[in-house]
Amino acid sequence: MDSLEQMSKEQQQRNQSIVELFDDSARADDFSIKAAGVLLDYSKQNINRGELKGLLNWAKKSNLTTKISGMFSGDKINNTEQRSVLHTILRAPISVQKEVLGDSTIEIENTAQKVSSIVDNVCQGKYKSYVGKSFTDVLAIGIGGSYYGLKVALSALSRYNSSSLKVHLLANVDGDAIENKLEKLDAETTLVIVISKTFTTQETLLNAQVVKEWMLQRLKSPKAIYQQWLAVSSNIEKAKKFGINPNNILPMWDWVGGRFSIWSAVGLPLALAIGNDNFRLFKEGAYQMDLHFQHADFDENMPILLALLGIWNRNVLNYPGLAILPYAHSLRAFPAYLQQIDMESNGKSVSSGGQKISWATAPIIFGQEGTNGQHAFMQLMHQSTDIIPTDFIVSLQGATSYKENHEVLLANCFAQSEALMTGKSVMEVVTELASSDDIALAPHKEMKGNTPSNTIALESVSPSSIGALFVLYEHKVFVQGALWQLNSFDQWGVELGKKLSSQVLSLMDNNQSDKDKVSASTLNLVNAYLESSKQ
Ligand code: F6P
User: Fold this and answer.
1) Of these residues, 356, 375, 499, 534, which one is catalytic?
2) Is 498 one of the catalytic residues?
3) Cα 57 → chain centroid
4) Is 146's C-beta closer than 6 angstroms to any atom of ligand 1?
5) Cα–Cα distance measured from residue 320 to residue 366, given in angstroms and rounded to the nearest whole number
6) 3-class SS at 83?
7) Mind listing the pLDDT tens digit for each residue in 181-214?
8) How far is CA 482 from its chain centroid?
9) Domain assignments of the chain as residue spans, ordered by start
10) Does 87-278 match 41-73+296-483 at the fold level?
11) Of the N and C termini of the chain, which has fewer Cβ atoms inside 10 Å?
12) In which residue ranges of the chain is pLDDT below 70?
């Protein structure tokens, strides 16, 4: 990474603003690229042609090409868990699956077929509930990768719902989350899908148990669970032990990471909502971005460019944040999804080889739908001491007849990227205020500008464009992890919190044997809870 340090020194000497880079009249066109139906305009990034060329050459000298082909061909690149990373294969044609996995493709095909049959049978009313009724609702219980992708896709593609089925997601262990769902459901007509790769996640198992008891209280027989519950897991034994009909357990494979699993049977709730055809289009759009990623030259490769610009901002310009601002209500869940995809993959400080690393890695991601963010954190973006690179995401076509609303939405998005780049100098403000009595306000009205951004534009929000958008960021994260020399596919960092929560839980059960395992602060907090629960 020494060359990045060199680039950083040279960039600081350049001291050129982003606006000045547009003196190069071809910049806007040359720093835009289209792939798999997605447009990326990266011309508002703070990088000139020579610097971009240097960054691309640095990437080409790395072993990135080898790592890309290694992932797609099933090398065990998740080295700490000795696993391949092959979620990509789940959206590829069967011929490609066979090239990589040979005969074990059969299980993938059978599972995809089973997903398709379940969708048909539920939606056509052939798959009945325990009391012989058609299903009206689906409740999917899962968290993390067993939730976020579904959350984004279900809200983004709600216009593509092809049946009257209502699909609900339950992730948080908070009783409020459970009550909020169960109060809307009829046990007699609810299909429950427990999604958990490990089938050991505390929140998911507790929620599943609560919902199971809710259903048993109403339907009185474990046969109802056998009839109305499905599971998606790699831990078949634990799913069976929970009481799921073995025929209703859909497999997950260890070479599919949880946060990349929506392409597997984890996508069943989405397929139930939008139908098999649209689920297939979702995967096809994803596959088109795979093909682009695998075959486009680096300087014309959207995920690689997005990754390198992120590395430029993180490691050369030293910006620790990244704002994800979808100017589309239907993509409101996308920032939270990317927090897991990006921060759980690359929020690390040890290389895949086990060495402590000295460079920065995953950015701190936040965001929410625009224009709402303009009334929340854009003040900071424009006038704080921090520069926060931003990804704006829009759909050029609105999905409704409200043309003026859509134009206002897009105008605000484009204006924000412009304002973040240009800012407003004190001189400009003074000129504006010269004839007014408010000249003393001038310093308060300066906008720092020089904030880099990408604008990612979909033609429209559709199954294929959402599939392509998911994969654009999947591969951006893969490329950054590869260049930062990380293993992007494990997540050991979540283990300590899980272990401590069980110790705190035992303290809450007045089991004092664990009290020397936590701090006085945590003990006080536990006691505060115990006191309050006596009232
Ligand atoms: O956040 C930790 C994590 O292991 C994620 O990687 C995973 O998506 C989530 O918990 C849920 O895990 P499971 O699907 O095994 O319940």
Assistant:
1) 375
2) yes
3) 29
4) yes
5) 11
6) strand
7) 999 999 999 999 999 999 999 999 999 999 999 9
8) 18
9) 41-73+296-483, 87-278, 495-533
10) yes
11) C
12) none
